[in-house]
Amino acid sequence: EFGSSRTITSRCDYRESLLKRGCEKHFIHSPGSSMAVLRNKPLSSKGSAPTQYDVIQIMPQKIALSLRPGDQTSFGVQVRQVEDYPVDLYYLMDLSLSMKDDLDTIRNLGTKLAEEMKKLTSNFRLGFGSFVDKNISPFSYTAAKYQNNPCNGYKLFPNCVPSFGFRHLLSLTDKVDRFNEEVQKQLVSRNRDAPEGGFDAILQAAVCKDEIGWRKEAFHLLVFTTDDVPHLALDGRLGGVVQPHDGQCHLNEKNEYSGSAKMDYPSLALLGEKLAENNIYLIFAVTKRLYVIYKNFTALIPGTTVEILDQDSKNIIQLIINAYNSIRSKVELTVWDHPEDINLSFTAICQDGRPRPGLRKCGDLKIGDTVSFNVTVDARGCPAEDTRHKFTIKPVGFKDTLEVTVNYKCTCGCTKETESNSTKCSSIGTYQCGICSCDPGYLGARCECQEGEDSMYQTMCREAEGKQLCSGRGECSCNQCLCYESEFGKIYGTFCECDDFSCARHKGILCSGHGECHCGECKCHAGYIGDNCICSTETDTCLSIDGQICSGRGNCVCGECQCSEPGAFGDTCEKCPTCPDACGTKRECIECRLFNSGRLADNQTCDRLCTDEIITVDTLNTDDQNAVLCLYKTENDCVMTFTYSEHASGQSVLAALKEPECGTPPDALTVLLAVVGSILLVGIVLLAIWKLIITVHDRREFARFQSARSRARYE
User: Per UniProt, what is the membrane topology (predicted)?
Assistant: First the structure.
């Protein structure tokens, strides 16, 4: 008997309002979202557990969510990179002719690399594979005279082996001597065009798990070395290969890729999917001129890094160690099988303890550090009854996962208690949760009216006195509004006052496509805010090269930096000639780029962080009012001077002296003579002064004597 009898929605209200209106607490049905932890083993500290499956790097491991649409719930995730974790490293090498000197360099790589990796893990295995390109025209030489020797007639290197797509040579093993032996046997080949078929090889190395020997319980590294760009998807059509890659393993009995002439090169998306699926970190080891190209690839393939390879691969061991340390210094979460009707938003809590909303990764970590993430979940709607969804949260490159199962709370508990043909509903409706669900053709709180009957009282269909019946968007029947249908969407509400299409738009798209329209107001999906849900709360796009949000000079608003430091500008506020720290920031780039010294001295860090144009000059132009003059003292007590300015094109320009200004040291003999001479000069001056004083004194005494003598004579 609660509430008004004029409308079925009178029982539906905020909890506080229902209590005020006299509904007792135990009569209120309001299912809320909840979370239950199903498996929560503690994090491991070392990778050397009795069995590697006992090593836990993410906590919890399994949870269950019950979601009420529109009601958020949150849970925490902890991730730790454990010490002494097993490592599988597969070395994938370009054996085209231009890599001959690199092949000579790595002939004893296995032993040296194993020695270095033992400092990082006690369980290390090494494997080896090679690639060239598809052995079809126009990618390779296919004429009869080149079948057995593509280098036939090539004066610089007359003998080489036929080209091939990918060849698996050594499965992962802890016997590193076998790696050296296998490398010793290899000979280079020759292909026709500059790009190589390396992406074919990467995919096979990733998906042929049994043949390569990837262990489920190990850290997977795939080192890809080359000195040229790769062929991409659709390039195969130049050779008549039109079938897209199927993402499967195609190694024959000789451990060679058998699909080279049948399937196109894989796409970047397929590569990323298969690498992530098999928990493989890909390291691009490429020459300096290719760094930017492969750096762009890393933005499209999660879990990938790029390092600069010397022309003869002399730095390959240090490169691998640097890449390994770089990979182990960061944690990034990914979501697999994300249900479309569920919103997820992440907040990272890294080593400094500060929450970073919209961020799902942490960097600058040490092995053994633990980082936390807060995940907020809400459902946008109700799927079919008894629907259950499942998704997985997984750190990039880890075998460990968090499994999340989801069920939906879309009904109240009272829906299980129903009275069909109830007398409370005039015997022509079902009584459920205190209201009547009328049979077709009947209306009213108690199903007392038939459709089409004129109502004696229409005031119940007005939101307020003087307002239109049913807001002008429906008909009043039996004191109840029947809302019109609209081609634009749904009209609803007690007085037909609401709809799902009269919300703010962006470029004609309702709620920018990032929210749902409810009664004229956008309800934004997780990760978006604003009247039209155009504003993203993600902060990844605001991260500067050094990992700071907006370079520490501004705030991230709607996924874009708003610079607060006077004089700062740029996409991430990275440009600021007038900032107090401008000279200090650019000084490090001057040191590493010009003199290979300072904190950023290693090539990879310097090339990654220092992208400004640096001009060396004999004399600096200090008259430019738009340039900032910077000076600093070097380790040799010299003074280095440079100017920092921003070009109209947006490029930062640093003009530096070719060499620091150092004062010439004085000659020792000159200093000695100067000191002795100064002493003698001071002595002579003092003697002269003394002599002058004595002379003046003697003359006065003599004058007195003469005067006294004269007086004595006359007396």
Answer: Single-pass type I membrane protein
The Cα angle at residue 331 between residues 348 and 559, in degrees rounded to 5: 45
* Beta carbons of 608 and 545 less than 8 angstroms apart: yes
Per-residue pLDDT tens for 576-603? 877 776 777 777 788 887 777 777 776 5
The predicted-structure confidence for 117-168, as pLDDT tens digits, reads as follows 888 888 899 999 999 999 898 988 888 888 888 888 887 788 888 889 999 9
Dihedral pair phi/psi, residue 170, rounded to 5°:
-145, 120
Distance CA 163, CA 133 (A): 7
**Is the preceding peptide bond at 302 cis, omega within 30 degrees of 0?**
no
**Any idea what the Cα angle at residue 378 is, between residues 375 and 381, rounded to 5°?**
155
User: Would you call 423 exposed, middle or buried from its count of C-beta atoms within 10 A (0-12, 13-18, 19+)?
Assistant: exposed
Spell out where 396-451 has E strands.
402-408, 418-419, 429-432, 435-438, 442-443, 449-450
The two structure tokens encoding residue 136: 């079809």
Report the chain's C-alpha Rg in angstroms.
Answer: 40
> Rounded to whole angstroms, what are the CA distances from 267 to 200, 245, 246, 566, 639?
10, 8, 11, 44, 52
Q: What are the C-alpha distances in Å from 429 to residues 434, 460, 483?
A: 12, 22, 21
Q: Residues 77, 393: contact at Cβ < 8 Å? A: yes
Give residue 392's region: left, alpha or beta (phi > 0; psi -120 to 50).
beta
Q: Could you give the CA distance from residue 563 to residue 567 in angstroms, rounded to a whole number?
A: 9
Of the candidates 515, 478, 473, the residue with the CA atom closest to the CA atom of residue 490: 473
As a whole number of angstroms, the distance between CA 363 and CA 526 comes to 24
Which residues sit opposite 344 in a β-bridge? Answer: 377
The whole-angstrom separation of Cα 542 and Cα 534 is 16
- Between CA 444 and CA 449 the distance in angstroms is 6
Distance in angstroms (rounded) separating the CA atoms of residues 503 and 377: 24
Among 44, 20, 15, 697, which Cα is nearest to 367's? 44
pLDDT in tens, 72-99: 899 999 999 888 889 999 999 999 888 8
- Tell me how crowded residue 159 is: count the other CB atoms within 10 A of its CB: 11
Residue 215: per-residue pLDDT: 92
38: phi then psi, degrees, rounded to nearest 5: -100, -30
DSSP code per residue over 462-505: BSSTTSPBGGGSEEEETTEEEEPPBTTB-EESTTS-EESS-S-E
- Report the distance separating Cα 200 and Cα 241, nearest Å: 13
Please list, in sequence order, all residues whose beta carbon lies within 8 angstroms of the beta carbon of residue 368, skipping any fewer than 6 positions away.
Answer: 45, 80, 81, 82, 83
Convert 471-502 to b/e letters by CB count within 10 Å (16 or more is b). Answer: bebbbbbbbbbebeeeeeeebbbbbbbbbbee
- Kindly report the average pLDDT of the chain as a whole number: 85
With tokens 């939906």, the residue in question is 408
> Long-range contacts of range 550-553, CB-CB < 8 Å, 24 or more positions apart?
551/576, 553/579
Q: What is the pLDDT of residues 313-370, one digit of tens each?
A: 888 888 899 888 888 888 999 998 888 888 899 999 998 888 988 888 898 888 889 9
Smallest CA-to-CA distance from 383 within 417, 413, 340, 437 is with 340
Task: Tell me how far apart the alpha carbons of residues 556 and 571 are, in angstroms, rounded to a whole number.
Answer: 11
- Tell me the DSSP string of 83-94: BT--EEEEEEEE
